[in-house]
Amino acid sequence: MNDLLRASVRDPMELKAFTTPRDNSSSSHHLRLCPTAATFFFLPSAYTLLFLTALPGNALSLWVFLRRISTISPTHVYLSHLSISNLLLSLTTPFLAAYYAQSSAWTLNSVLCQLVLHGVTPVLHISIYISLVILTWVALSRFAALIQHTHASRPSTCTTLLPHAFFTRLTKVSFASRVCVALWAVAVGGIVPVTVYYSVKEAMMGNASSVDGEAEKGSGAKLCYSPAVEIGGSLSAALSVPVIILFFAFYLLVLLSYITVMRHIRRSRRSTTVTTSQRLLGKVFRNIVIIQVVLSVCLLPYHIFKPIFISLAHHQELTNPPGPRSFDRCHPLSALVEVKNCLYLLAALRSSTDAVMYFLLDKSFRQQISAVLGRKRNKSRERAVWSVTGSVTQKTGQMEDENAATGNLSHDGVF
Asked: Which sequence ranges are marked TM in the entry (predicted)?
């Protein structure tokens, strides 16, 4: 009886917490993320540097593809769309730098937090996965052109499996343009609904559940950098699985083309001595190796870690016991969230290296960049020569004037 009387005079919020059981799925949202210097200093600095390098590099690349190259090939179409996706990604990096630098100060309802959730996140995902598909398609199209136009001891199996019309379309610019337009449509149509649902439903509702716990403590702040935003919910985790599988499918396709080109080169060396064929084989092999290295260094680590992170987050949701003051503790996955964000930075870092990749992949792009840089060097040299010539001419004129004056004085002295 006394217990019932004491319960009746409790605070209503405390009574709500006493009578309403918390389920395990929402208890983890009452924990807070505890960022370190990696979030406050390293990530903002890296994204700022990425903006300063990716924006001018990809803007110059797109200008070269659209204005400087007269004969457009399918590869130029793919690389120009890759530059557009990289430009979009580079425009999101200042907001990401501000997000990580001010992660403990932004509230969920602030304009900048909503901009990151609803605008920056979809653009970032679209840019990364469009780049993945375009790089894979460039590798496969060059591989297909290789096995069609070079000879070995026996024809490649791919030439018998794929129709001849497919190889013909690979050489057409219109086909490349249609492929890129379809790619943008699929990427936008597939990624935007998922990210909008994640940012509107899971992040908002997850933070709402955490606010209930913080209200018990006396604080109603809803932070933007929170487990609900950084970890997500069950639906976004489930939809991440096919994206990860898609990445490994593309990665294995590039790896398979790499192995097949190696075998094709070996057979060709045994069967022919034509130098042009060997030169073509070596060029295509180098291009596929460059794409393979870019995918392995920039995108592979994140997609290896992401399923591990999802499984750990799911396990933590199931095993974390609910507690009335669990919002006072750091989330067990705080360190892993920072690792995930650093690996995602590595995936975004690819946008600043693509200009170098264009220089290695495409001969026309390399010639135009060399011509632009060479013209700038020649102008600087001409300015230096003109400045030196002008100074020399000025000095010569002064000397002539002095000599003339001296000669006049001498003449007057003699006569």
From this structure: 46-66, 78-100, 120-140, 179-200, 237-261, 284-305
